[in-house]
Each structure stands twice: as C-alpha cells, then as structure tokens.
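Final report, closing paragraph on structural work. Over the funding period we assembled a curated collection of sequence-structure pairs, and we close with a single example.
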Amino acid sequence: MPPRKSKKKKKSPRPARNEHGGPKSARRHAATKSPVPKPNRKPTGDLFQALVDVQARLRAPGGCPWDRQQTHATLKTFLIEETYEVLDALESGNSQELAEELGDLLLQILFHADLALEAGTFDISDVITGIHDKMIRRHPHVFGNVKADTPAEVLKNWAQLKAQEKLAASGETAAEKPIAPSALDGVPRSLPALLEAYQLTRRAAQVGFDWETVDGIFDKMQEETSELRAALKASPPRKDNPPIGEAAEEEIGDILFVAVNLARFLGYDPEVALKKSNLKFKSRFQLMEKVALQSGVSLAQLSKVELEVLWESAKIKSKSPAEPVSQP
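Its predicted structure, as stored:
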C-alpha cells in the first residue's frame, strides 16, 4: 500500500508538550534491547515529576483556561483520539512520531489523575502503585515460585489471579458467593463491538474454551454464512427497502463474531487488521478516482464493468514488490 502521509496536527487546543520518553512497559522490557544512554539526560523519575508539576500548574488558579475547564467527561474524546494516534504511529514505523504520541497519551493519564486528586479520590501515585503491585501479583512465575513456561500458561494464570482478586475485592468468600466470578467480567459493554468481541473470545480462550484447530472456525464461518443465506431467502432484501429483519441481522453479527474469533485464533488483533484493510481500500478507491479524473470523468459516470476494470487496475498498481500480483 502507498506510504502514509504525515499526520495532521490535532484540532483541539492543547498545551505544548516538551517532555517525552520514559521506561518501556514491563511486559516488553526484557525482550527488547536497552536504549543507548543519552548524555545529560535527567533521571526518568525527575522527568516524570516535572511533567506532573507542569500539568498541575496548568490546572491551578492562573493556569490555562482550557485545561481548567476540562472534566473526566470532556476528556473522553481526547483519550480515544490519542490512543488511535498511537496506533497510527505504530503502523507508520516512525519512532519519533511514536514517542510523541505516547507522550500525548501519557498526558491524558496525568490529566485524569490530576482531576481525581482535586476531587480527593486518588492521585498519580495511586495509579503507579496500583499497576506496579498488580504486575508483581500477576507475574508469580517471575516474582514468585509459580511455574509458567508458555505464554498460554501465563495468560491462564493471569485470568485465574484476576478472578481471585475480584472475589477478594467483593468482600465475600467463595462459599458465600452464589456464583463464581465470570471470566468475562470486566469487559465493558461500552467498548466498540469489534474490540468487545475480541476481548470476550480472548478471555474465554484463556480458560480453555477455544477451537482445537483453525479448520473448526472456517467450518463455523461456513455454517453462519449458510444461515444468513437462509434468512435472506425467507425475507429477500430489496434495494428500496434495506432492512431485512432481525434474523438476518443476527446472522450478520454471528459472521462478524466468527471473523473476530478467526483473527484472534491466528494471533492477529481484528481492529488492527481491519484498520489496515480500510486503509488499503481507501488508497485503491482514491487511485480509481484519480485515474477516472485523468480521463475526464467521475466514478459515478462509469458502468459497473468499467468500475471493476478500474478496481482491478488499482489493485495491481498498489501491490508492493514483495506481494504477488495474483493474490486476491
């Protein structure tokens, strides 16, 4: 696919960020090379505290009017935006852009912690202490005597420990609680549907509820496709009347759910995979528009056959040298 264009800067007002960097995630640190030390760099703890102080100053009386006006609710959009911009930076492979976007995301965390501090509920120290202690508890194979030699064993232990922690937090004993904590507890219904399906199937797989082979998922996909065809046959769709009934909608949902399961089983994040396909479709469609425009027509003026010819041509032109042209 064509190289990504440089990302447009954010539309919303933001204070300037001039503190970047920080330690790698504990999950990845051991598997990555240590960064080359930079001369005259302050200790990470000092840099982090300086950023905390900057955010506190922005929220303090006489600080930034925009920052002082924000609440947890108004910051939701920015939190989502910054998260997706981190994903864009990862996709671009630009390490400098990734460092900047991670800094923007870190600022969102500090922002929410600062709001909580003002409300007297928690502060950034509580956030750090919580995740630090959780990582120690959830990795007994590293910090304790539990044995877990494979990633699958690690994830299974993680799920069990999480369930135990939730039970302990409820203040009830296993005997007092009529129903054991669900492995699916904690998957928010507010998640986008694709991500929710991924999290649900991932957690189910962690406790052993999963397909033995990928062939089983393909068989399920075929089954769901057949059920959709049957639903459509019972209530044929018409161009002037798009709604086709709840049965067909349910089967479409089942097909999407199976597709998410397939991606997860093969080790792919369905959201990331779909974002890449979206970008691929967008680049090819825009190439079609460009070719049509060079011929003095718009796509809307072309026949179905002509559009298909343009599409196949765009597919060929957008293939990278390493990608076989014959691949669909």
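The mean pLDDT is 83. The domain at 211-268 is CATH 1.10.287.1080 (Helix Hairpins). We thank the funder for supporting this effort.
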